[in-house]
Specification:
The chain is mainly alpha-helical and 83 residues long. 49% of the residues lie in helices and 10% in strands. The two termini are 34 Å apart.
Length: 83
């Protein structure tokens, strides 16, 4: 996935608006739940003529050190309860 993102940084001038694209996709990755919801809504609004399935995968991304430290604290707490 990271290699794909690095490649896209080199070949794309700017982010592309998914809703304006006429391309067909097999897999779509999003990094935010709001974006995932927008992708699903876009599919629901369009007329589907191909009936081709598409996988939409959301991967939550931690955006700050504060979020990272609180997530790690929750994991450590959860791990200690399992012992």
């Amino acid at each position: 996935m990271l290699n794909l993102l690095q490649r896209n940084r080199r070949i794309k001038e700017r982010p592309e608006r998914f809703q304006a694209s006429q391309e067909r996709f097999d897999v779509i990755f999003t990094c935010e739940e709001k974006v995932y919801d927008n992708v699903i809504a876009s599919f629901e609004e369009k007329d589907n003529v191909s009936e081709q399935p598409v996988h939409v995968v959301n991967m939550d991304v931690v955006n700050s050190l504060l979020s990272t430290s609180s997530t790690n604290s929750r994991r450590r707490l959860s791990d200690s309860r399992d012992e």
